[in-house]
Amino acid sequence: MYETRNRIVGRAATQRNRVFQDSEVRRLRQELGGRRVVAEILVVIPTYRRPEGVKRAVASALAQTRDDLAVIVVDDGGGLPGDLPVDPRLHAVSLRRNTATLGLVRNVAIHLAESEYIAFLDDDNVWTPDHLNAALCALEADPGLGGVYTTLRRLKPDGSELDVLGLPFDRKLLRWHPYIDANSIVVRRSANIDFSVVPRNRNTLPKEDWEYVWRTSRRSRLSHVPAVTVLYAVNPDSYYTPWELAAEPPGGTS
């Protein structure tokens, strides 16, 4: 019901976002040599004005024990740091303007690459070195899975632990609680659908991740890998998510 309302209210802006997304994919593909980036695993890192954060996120992606990967950083018009690592697996691009639409930024990276699997990492979070291996072992063991998600350790701004979030997949629970975060997800590209490009702010429900997982689970089977592989920064200043650190309910990520 909420998402139906979001689509109606944001219809015109959503269409503008789609047009801009498609034009940026065409432009950036030429910037990358006229062809798509190819790897077994695509790591999508959206960023906006977090130079130190994105460098930590990139470092954790490049440090994965699975190395047949491509990392695509997409800057949402805020500017990229000049000292990103030099690595042939890393590709960093900037959109012509700020969109403030997380789904659009992620979609641009998805369409700039060819890969069997896709993983998502935001610019204020990091993975443990075995994140991709844990997810891919589960996907390789069960070809019927469309995607998996691992467990998050959520950290307060002072670095202390807020909680550990990881529950078996339950679509009835997901209807009411967004307990699966995109930073923990690895999907098969065959099961992948684009993120929504409906404009959202801190108070919009559902968030991009919640809506994405809900639609993905309608088309394919998802499963939980009970390994803590994501260090998730709870950011009270987040543009996208309002945080109540004192009493965060289960499934507070979105």
What keyword list fits this structure?
disordered C terminus, Spore Coat Polysaccharide Biosynthesis Protein SpsA, Chain A, 254 residues, alpha/beta, nine-stranded mixed β-sheet, two-stranded parallel sheet
User: Which whole number gives the mean pLDDT?
Assistant: 92
CATH class of the domain at 2-143 and 186-217: Alpha Beta
Distance between the termini: 17 Å
Largest sheet: 9 strands, mixed
**CATH architecture assignment of the domain at 2-143 and 186-217:** Alpha-Beta Complex
- Low-confidence stretches are 245-254
**Overall shape:** globular
Q: Topology as H/E string?
A: HHEEHEEHEEEHEEHEHE
Number of strands: 11
Q: What gyration radius follows from the Cα positions, in whole Å?
A: 17 Å
Helix content: 25-40%
Q: Could you tell me the CATH topology label of the domain at 2-143 and 186-217.
A: Spore Coat Polysaccharide Biosynthesis Protein SpsA, Chain A
Percent of residues in β-strands: 15-25%
Summarize the structure.
The chain is of the alpha/beta class and 254 residues long. The protein is built from seven helices and eleven strands.
Task: Describe this structure as you would to a colleague.
The chain has 254 residues and is an alpha/beta fold. It has a domain at 2-143 and 186-217: Spore Coat Polysaccharide Biosynthesis Protein SpsA, Chain A, CATH 3.90.550. Helix content is 31%, strand content 24%. It has helices at residues 2-9, 11-31, 51-62, 102-111, 131-141, 171-176, 208-219; strands at residues 37-38, 41-47, 69-75, 90-94, 113-114, 117-120, 126-127, 145-155, 161-165, 185-188, 221-233. Strands 2, 3, 4, 6, 7, 8, 9, 10 and 11 form a nine-stranded mixed sheet that branches. Strands 1-5 form a two-stranded parallel sheet. Helix 3 links the parallel strand 2 (41-47) and strand 3 (69-75). Helix 2 runs parallel beside helix 4. The two termini are 17 Å apart. Mean pLDDT is 92; it is low at 245-254. It holds the Pfam family Glycos_transf_2. It comes from Mycolicibacterium confluentis. Residues 43-143 form the Glycosyltransferase 2-like domain. This is Glycosyltransferase 2-like domain-containing protein. InterPro entries: Glyco_trans_2-like, Glycosyltransf_2, Nucleotide-diphossugar_trans.
